[in-house]
Amino acid sequence: MPQPQLTLFEKLLVSLGLAEPPPAPVYLGNPSTQVWVDLHTALYYCPGSALYGKTQGGKFTTQRDAQQDQFEPANRKACE
Fold first, then answer.
1. What stretch of H or E contains 62?
2. Which of 1, 9, 40, 79 has a CA-to-CA distance to 56 between 20 and 30 Å?
3. Distance of alpha carbon 18 from alpha carbon 79, whole angstroms
4. pTM for the predicted model, two decimal places
């Protein structure tokens, strides 16, 4: 994953403690992966997981839509 590009001046400020380093980028996974969202728990499941397509009252959607609707990945990391 690419790191943020800092200018020499920005690197100096960070090294002197006068500025905060930029936050690390967050990997959101493949946005077009089909996931199963559980509407009761607000979690989503990746293909191949034990509860993928199996929780009552859930639905299929893309990972992007699940994330935009504030669902969290059930195993705490995005689907590949």
1. strand 59-62
2. 79
3. 37
4. 0.71
pLDDT, residue 24, reads: 79
Contacts of 36 (CB under 8 A, 6+ apart): 44, 45, 51, 52, 53, 54, 55, 58, 59, 60
Domain ranges of the chain: 8-73
Tokens 């077009």 correspond to what residue?
32
Distances (CA, A) of 57 to 9, 23, 36, 53: 53, 36, 10, 10
Q: Tens digits of per-residue pLDDT, 3-55?
A: 668 899 999 999 999 999 988 788 899 999 999 999 999 999 999 999 999 99
Helices (H) and strands (E) in the chain, counts: 2, 4
